[in-house]
Amino acid sequence: MEKLDGYSGALKRLLEENNVRAGDVVKVVTGEREYVGTIIPRYEYASQDFLTLKLLNGYNIGISLDKILSITLIEKHSPPSFKSTPPEFKSKNLPKAVIVSTGGTIASRVDYRTGGVRPALSAFDLLSVVPELAEIAKVDAEVLFSMYSENMTQSNWTILAKKLHDYVSKGYEGVVVTHGTDTMGYTAAALSFALKNTPVPIVLVGSQRSSDRPSSDASSNLISAMRTSIEAPFSGVYVLMHGWVSDERMEVHLGTKVRKMHTSRRDAFKSINIKPAAIYENGRIHVILDNLPKRKVPSSFEIFPNFDDRVALIKFYPNMDPEIFLYLLDRGYRGIVLEGFGLGHVSSRAISVLKKIIRDGVFVFMTSQCIFGRVRLTVYDTGRDLLEVGVIPLEDMLSETAFVKLSWCLGNFEEDRVLDIMKANIAYEFSSRTFLEEGERFGD
Amino acid sequence: METRPFKAKVGLELHQQLNVGRKLFCDCPIMEYAEAEYKILRYLRPTQSELGEVDPAVMFEFRKNKANIYIYNSKASCLVECDEEPPHPINMDAVKAAITVALALGSKVVEELHVMRKIVIDGSNTTGFQRTVLVALDGVLKADDIEVPVQTISVEEDAARLVEERDDAKVFSLDRLGVPLIEISLAPIEADPKTVERVALALGRLLRLTGFAARGIGTIRQDINISIEGFPPCEVKGVQKLDLIPKIIEYEMMRQYHLYNVARLLKEKGLDSISSIGEYVDVTCLFEGASSRIVRNALDNGKKVYGIKLKGFRGLFKMEPYPNVRLGLELADMARAYGLGGIIHSDELPAYGISSEDVERVKAYLSVEESDAFVLVLAGERDYDALSALRQRMLRFFEGPVPETRGPTGDGRTRYSRPRPGSARMYPETDIPLIRVTRELIEECRKFVPKPWSEVLRDYMQKYGLNEKLANQILDSVYLGLFEKVCSMTKLSPTLVAVVLTEHLVTVSREGLDISVLDEGMLFELFQLLDSGRVSKESVIDILKCMCKEGVSAGDCVKRLGLKPISEEDLAKMVHETVVSNRAIVESLKERSFGPLMGMLMEKVRGKADGGKVSRLLKEEIAKLLQNI
After folding, report:
1. Cα(B470)–Cα(B451) distance, integer angstroms
2. Could you say which architecture CATH assigns to the domain A9-75?
3. Which uninterrupted H or E stretch holds A326?
4. Mean pLDDT over residues A9-21, rounded?
5. Domain ranges in chain A?
6. Do domains A9-75 and A96-303 have the same CATH topology?
7. B-chain residue closest to A114, CA distance
8. Angle of helix B568-581 relative to helix B611-628, nearest 10 degrees?
9. Average pLDDT, integer, range B224-233
């Protein structure tokens, strides 16, 4: 049965009989007292025996169906009528920029009458909530996807890469992608490989605190990302997020070296095995990494937008049943990135199975579940055995980046080129030197 | 006090910290700890409402655009207080405490609880909202002969503690953020200020009797809504001391009545706001060579002098019908709340180094006539909002009292703090699941519902042999726990212990000494000394004073004050000698000689010997001597 504003069963019937629904102001009479308030939609998984009412003092309460004697309409709901006004751009000479949204709500409004949160989607809407953007650029906005980032697939990466290629080719000087944080690192890696020689920095940005709250990091991240995309002297694909829990220092991470390292902190994103590419602080960009590609005019900008989804990322665990790899082979998987123990090891009883699937044509690569550091298969016997059967170690590449890169290789290139491309440094995914101050434990 | 034509309506909102072991939405302990392990800097940004409306209180804070700095220490806070981790499930003990209070007040407990986010962007909450949950509605508080309707009972998280307000930032300590509070709102009542104090006392007592109330300074705070008939209320937020309540109500009544009178007077003069209140004029040029130090300093800091004319206002600013009730103060308080030094009005000039020539120049420049007044504001370019708010306030002098949020000053006065917020902006805290209040939960709480105060009092008087006054005092005291501990662990008379913990401490603090330096351990040591006879009860006040002044233990004070007790033998000898050497007095006054001789002795032995013992020995000696005559 279809729900009415989240209500089902007897409560739904009661609302229908009285011709009231969410948003309406009603009088509810129970055996104990009368309540006047606004009917609020019910959460999907909340118990269906209660009516949620927002009282005149602003509080929500739940009233059990058993107690309700009558519901009478006082006032029909009329939806709020906010209209965003066209932004005033401070100067005619502002650069053109675009914000491509993929899901995470980077800006929103709250309807305090019903408690509903509505994302700001159009460019006008966005600019009315984050007016600082209008001082930086003439901003266009496009909602490309409306999805939780955990639902992103390879085909979303393809669509996004093509869309960004279009915008950059049309001469947009600032390109910002808003993204849910859960898989932002994967998408950043995907775009890093798919877009070759991008002339301007494409900056992915998200927020760890939802945009409906005054403490949200969404607008400060968005403003910093836009400035970075327009002003940075380098190009490429980056993720910009808070550098610490204060609203002071933002870090700009290389799209292939960034990982979400905390479930909830604002500074969850860290560059792994390398320093951040740049710091954004007090309105200024401080470049940290040498040899970043220079910002330039589009000339050799190319796109390789395809990804093969028959690739798996497997974390090895003690006593893992190697038959799992045979299952992947049966399902037609073409490549596997392993997250091994330590320097890149798996239990020796898995080696014969790995040997079989490699012989049957599956590409198998080794990264480390240590996250920090470099794999080295020549140190212990197990490592040497893995090399022997054809497992390819991927140095200090993040396992997630390796997974994305393999998917991209198989999507765009012939199989005989895959090994070479996987071992080549395409988008800063390898660093040949790892320094002492890097690879520190996550912390302060 | 001529406020009789008006009845005041007073609504109380009590906030009491709950002593339930851990914070409301995380596992942190409840303790004060403001030593900085880390400092976090944040800005809050108001979330636009769907209607694009602007809440006046929210904009007041946002326009000041101050950074907030949070002092973090892992002893008292975790990532939840930093707004770096979602809230944990609600502390059900706090909910149980609120249900218990609700049952005691006959309130109706909400069947399904919804945690809400109430927008607060003054920086005191790292999230920009306060989590709050309505637990019960209705009920009646009985305070002696009066019954006050209860409106709501809710549980909410306490705010971070403001430790410093700088020009560019507010500094908060996170230790208090998230401490569970119960909030009880009483319906506004028409009552005299003393009665309101009694109501607050009754409510505080009920909470303490449940055993859920935290004790100590700052654990209980009252917000008081005060209005005179026909006008909107002002809210005085954060009153911590009960005995300030009647003073604050009286002050507010006088202040509001004066504002009413000013409006009436202006009307009688045929004035209206639009034609009376001028626009700001930059009069900086008139002060270029000025000798006034205030003006000079402001100009040196890049500020300007703005003048505004108020037609027909001459004399109104300095009019002070009641102590500290003046129109000038209204504006000055507001200017300070907006971060300006204050204002200067023509009624107080010449002063502050502004000469009568300066005044004449301003008057000419602003076309101020004999019956008019003017106000000068020293402000910079960024103070546009302050200037505009001050002018808005002047325009509203024609309306009588206007709604404001005010703060207590500590001496019973109140002071403007910010505009009244619009209706509460709340939306659901979706990180916390809904809480079903089951019948079992209610029955569990029913066990904690305390007996009425009168019964508890009677039991206490019986158990400890205290009189009613002392029993009331010790039950209200923060030292109740210590009292019970001392009574169970020493042979001291409960009455003596109660007197020391209530009346003696009041005596000491009335002398201006800070009794908050005395912790329970220090006081307990004093009682141990008393119990062992090493200290006489006569010397307790002196020792307490010394402890407060020097911040040292009771034992150290005994040494410093030279209070070594006299041995029984020496005392007997001293009494004997006194009687012998005053033989003449004893012979002429007989038994009545006790009074003067006792006086002489006590002067020598006060604090070193027990008065009762001295009296007994003296009576014996006098009797002995009289027998021998």
Report:
1. 19
2. Roll (2.30)
3. helix A323-330
4. 92
5. 9-75, 96-303, 311-423
6. no
7. B427
8. 40
9. 93
> Under an 8 A CB cutoff, do B112 and A47 touch?
yes
Q: Which residue of chain B comes nearest to A265, CA vs CA?
A: B84
Q: Is B436 on the interface with A (CB under 8 A)?
A: yes
* Distance, CA of A350 to CA of B134 (rounded, Å): 58
Contact B128, A215 (CB under 8 A): yes
- Catalytic annotation on A5? no
CA distance B14 to chain A (A): 17
Q: Which of B47, B112, B118 sits opposite A212 (nearest CB)?
A: B47
Identify all chain A residues contacting B85, using CB atoms and an 8 Å cutoff: 263-265
Residue tagged 């080549």 (tokens): A424
Do A214 and B45 count as a contact with CB atoms less than 8 A apart?
Answer: yes
- Render pLDDT for B263-313 as a digit per residue (tens, 0 to 9): 999 999 999 998 999 999 999 999 987 788 889 988 988 899 999 999 999
Residue A14 has, within 13 A of its CA and on its CB side, a CA count of 23
Q: Which of B85, B111, B152 is the closest to A63 by Cβ?
A: B111
Distance of alpha carbon B365 from alpha carbon B621, whole angstroms: 90
* Interchain proximity B84–A245, CB inside 8 Å: yes
Which of B325, B363, B322, B323 shows the shortest CA–CA distance to B345? Answer: B363
Residue B542, SS3 per DSSP: helix
Contact call for A59 and B134, based on CB within 8 A: yes
**CB neighbours of residue A310 within 10 Å:** 16
Among the four given CATH numbers 3.20.20.370, 3.40.50.40, 3.50.50.60, 3.30.750.24, the one describing domain A311-423 = 3.40.50.40
- Supply B288's token pair: 């270029």
Per-residue pLDDT at B445: 96
Nearest residue of chain B to residue A212 (CA atoms): B47
B267-404 has which fold?
Gyrase A; domain 2 (3.30.1360)
Output the CA–CA distances (angstroms, integers) from residue B455 to A289, B461, B472, in the order listed.
Answer: 76, 10, 12
pLDDT (mean) for B9-27: 95
Q: Where is pLDDT greater, at A42 or B84? A: B84
Predicted complex ipTM: 0.92
Q: Which position has the token pair 């899901």?
A: A103
Instruction: Report how far Cα B151 is from the mean position of its chain's Cα atoms.
Output: 23
List A260, A367, A385, A405, catalytic entry: A260
pTM of the model: 0.86
Q: Is A181 a catalytic residue?
A: yes
Q: Per mean pLDDT, which range of B55-69, B342-356, B393-407 is the poorest?
A: B55-69
- B227: confidence class by pLDDT, cuts 50, 70, 90: very high
Contacts of A213 in chain B (CB under 8 A): 47, 117, 127-129
Token representation of residue B212: 């859920």
- Catalytic, out of A105, A178, A187, A256: A105
Q: With an 8 Å Cβ cutoff, are B79 and A113 in contact? A: no
pLDDT at residue B63, as a whole number: 61
Per-residue pLDDT at B215 = 79
The domain defined by A96-303 folds into Rossmann fold (3.40.50)
Q: Does B132 touch chain A (CB under 8 A)?
A: yes
Distances (CA, A) of A396 to A344, A399, B521: 11, 9, 59
What does the domain layout of chain B look like in residue ranges? 8-241, 267-404, 453-560, 568-628
